[in-house]
Specification:
The structure holds two protein chains of two kinds. Chain A is built from twelve helices and eight strands. Chain A is α/β, with parallel strands linked by helices. In chain A, helix 4 runs parallel beside helix 6. Chain B is α/β, with parallel strands linked by helices. Helix content of chain B is 29%, strand content 18%. Chain B contains 19 helices and 22 strands. The longest helix of chain B is centred in the C-terminal third of the chain and has 20 residues. The radius of gyration of chain B is 28 Å and the shape is elongated. The chains are: A alpha/beta, B alpha/beta.
Chain lengths: 296, 551
Amino acid sequence: MEIKAEDLNRVEKKDLFASGHRACGGCGQALAARLVADAAGENTIACVATGCLEVFSSPYPDPSWRIPFLHSLFENSAAVASGVEAAYKALKKGPVNIIAQGGDGSTADIGFQCISGMFERGHNVLYVCYDNEAYMNTGVQRSSFTPLGARTTTTPTGNKTRKKNLPLIAADHGIPYVATATVDDFRDLQRKVKKALAIEGPKYLHILAPCPLGWGHTGDLTVLMCRLAKDTCIFPVYEIVEGKVTNVQKVPNKKPVEEYLKLQGRFRHLFKKGVPTEPVAAIQEIANQNIEKFNL
Amino acid sequence: MEKLPLGLALDLRNVVPYKTGSWRTLKPLYLMQTPPCSHSCPIGNDIRGFLRTLADQKDYEAAWRVLTRTNPFPATCGRVCPHPCEDGCNRRDFDTPLAINSSERCVGDYGLDNHLEHKKDVLTQRKEKIAVVGSGAAGLSCAFHLAKRGFKVKIYEAEHEPGGMMRWGIPAYRLPKEVLSREIDNILKLGIELECNTKVGVNIPMDQLTGHYDAVFLGLGAQKGVSIGVEGQDSRGVFTGVGFLKDVHSGRKVQLGRDVVVVGGGNTAMDCARVAKRMGANVSVVYRRTRNEMPAITAEIDEALEERIMFRYHTNPVKIITDDGRVVGLMCVQMELKEADASGRARPVPITGSESVVPADTVIMATGQDVDYEGLDLAKRENKWVSADEQYMTSIPKVFAGGDAVLGLETVSAAIGQGFRAAMAIEDMIDGQTEGHLARPPVVFSRDLNTYYYQQKRRFAKEAIPVHERLKSFNEIYPAFDRDEILTESSRCFSCGLCFDCGNCLMYCPDNAVKVTQGGGRYEFDYDFCKGCGLCVKECPCHYIQLTLEK
C-alpha cells in the first residue's frame, strides 16, 4: 500500500486516546499512546499488554480508548495480536491496522518469546514498545531495558548491566520495518507509525517514553529528557528497512552524557561527592559506541 | 429498565469521564506577556504585533494600522530612530536581533505610497478644545492622539512650516523632507487646525490659550543653540549647531569656506559635520572625551567616519582665532580623562601646555541646546528644562508639556512617546479619571523562551549607497527596501509572549487537555482533565503559557 508524502508528514490529532486516564502528570507513555493512536486512525485494533498503559487507560467503565482495545497478559500481547490478525484473515475481513503495544518489561523480558514468534511467523502486526527503562507499573523494578548505572528499587546501587538492544534483535528476525522514535519529535513518530502500517508483515517501533516517577524528574521535563537522550547519543533514532539502517537522525551538536544524567534522580548517586567517575565514563562510552555504530 | 447488550453490566453511554483535573496543584494559563522590544520602545509601539502581522498575514496595510495605533510617524522613525527595540530583542542572545527599524520604515513607506489614512478611534466629536504649542514630534503626536479620541485640536507653530526639529534639525540624507511632510499632512487630515507663524508668548499670550482652551500641551523643543563660551565666539564664521542646520534647511545661503571644525559629540554635531561635508568642506569634529563617551547615535558616528570626517578626541577648544573679525583657526587644548563625574562619563581635565591651533574657516559649536522661554513663565528643572509631573502637567494647571523641552535632548521617538502619554493624561484629566491605566504584563526575557523551536536565520542588512555617491548630494543614503525581504525578516520574530500557533501545547499534552478554540482564539485548556504537569509551559517557545498556583 503506497502512502502519499503529504499524508505521511501530516500531524494527526483525532483524540482517539481521550482525556481522563489515570497516568501521572507529564507521562511520556500516555503522550506516546495518544500520538500512536491518532496516527493509526479509527480503523485500528489495539492489543495492549499488562503494564502502566493498560492500568491507567482501561478501567471499566471509563476507558480512554476510542478504538477497539484488547487487554492481554503481561507476556502475550504479540500472540493475541497474531490471533486477531489470523482471525481477520480467516473471516476474510479487513484490512485493519493491528497494533500490539507494551512497555519495556513485557516487550524485552516477559513477552519476548511471543514477540519473537510473531516476527518469525510473519504476522501483519505493528508492535509498539513504550520504553521507559524499568517496570514502572509495579514500582520501578529493573528490566532488561534499564540502562547502565540507573537506580531502581531492585538495583539500589545502580544497574550493573547495559540495556538490551531490541531494535537490532528485531531487525535480525528479517522483518521488513524497524524504527526507533521519541515523544519529543511527534512529527517523526507519527510519520513512522503511518509508514509502518503501510508495510505488509511484522513491524517493530521502539519509542522512548520517559517516566517522571521512575526517572526522577519533574513532569514538565518529559520532552526535554527525550531531546537530551538524542543529543547525547544515548538513544539513536533511526529506521531499519529490509535489514538496512537508514534515515539516521544526525546529531550535529553532541552533548556530554552528564547533561542528560544530571537531570534525573535515578542517576543522582553517580554525581555524589567522592563517587568514582568510572560509571559516567562507561555511559559515555555507550554513547560513543552509538555514534560510531550509527554514524550520528 | 432498558435491556443492555449481551455481556454489559453497565450502560457505557451514561458513564461520566473521570475528571483528572482535580489532581492539579499547578494551573497553566494562556497569558499574553510584554515583549522586550515594546518594553524598550520609548513610544511603546506594538512591535510584535506589526511584525507578526507581516509574517503571518503578509499584509502591509494591516501592519501599518498596527503601528499607527501608537506612532503616527512610522516612515520617519523607521529612518531616524536609534532603535532601542533592537537592543531589547530576545533574538540578540540567539543569533542577531531583528531589523525592526528597517521593517518599520518599509511599513511606513508602504503607508505613504498607498495613501493610507488614519482613522479615528471614536466617531463622536467631543466639545472640549485643546491647544498644542509647537508642531514637532511631541506636539504632533499629542495632537494626533487627541484628535483620534475626538477632541478638537489646534496647533500653534512659530515657524512657517510644521515639523520642528524633524524639519529644521534632521538633514535630508537621513530624513527626506517629502517623507516628513506627507506624514504630517496625514496627521493633519484628522481635522487638526494648524496656525503657523504664531509664537505663543510673543504673538499670542499664554493666558489667552489657558482661558480659551480646556487644556494646553507645550511641545516647545530645545531650539536655542548654546555655545560653551570661548573667546571670539561672536566672530563671523561661528555658528551654533542648531543655527547652522536651520540656516541650511531653510534654504539660506551659508558660506563655509574650506575647513570646518565642529565642536561637540552629540547628534547635532554629527548632523552638522555631515551636512558641511556634503557642502564640500573639509570637516573635523573636536570632542573632549573619546568615542565611547559620545552621546550621538552609534550608527551616526559610524556613518560620519565612513564619510571621511576626522575626529579629534581628547580635544577642547579654548579660543577662536580671528583675523579682521573672521575665523581663521581654533586653538584647542589636549585633555586627559579622570574619574567619572555626575553624568557617569569620564571627567576631562586639560593638560597644560598642550595647546595647538586647528585651521578653520568656520566653527560650528554644537555644544548644547536650550528651551526658548520667551514670554513663558514656567517652573524649571535644573534651571534649564521644563518641569512636569508624572501626569505631564507643568506648574500651570491644565498646561501639559513633553518632548525635548522636558526630557532634555532626546530622540524623536522619545518625544512621540511623551506626546502620546500626555494626550492620555489630558483625556484622563478632562474625563476626571484619577485611576491609573492598567499596568503592563511582565516582560519576556531570553531565559523564559524555549529557543529549541527557532531556527537561526540571517538578519536583513540594509545597504547604503557608496560614500563617494552619498557625498555628492543630500539624497537619502539608504534606498528603499525590498518588501519581500522585509516579509522574510519579519518571520524571524520570536513572538515573545504571544501565541503564534506552533501547536506544541496541543500536541504535547499527555492528558489531551488542550483544545482548539472554536471560532477565533487559538487554544484553550480543558481544566476538567489538565493535571498541571507543566509540560506545555516548558515546551511553549514564546512563554505564552504561565504556571500559576491552583486555588
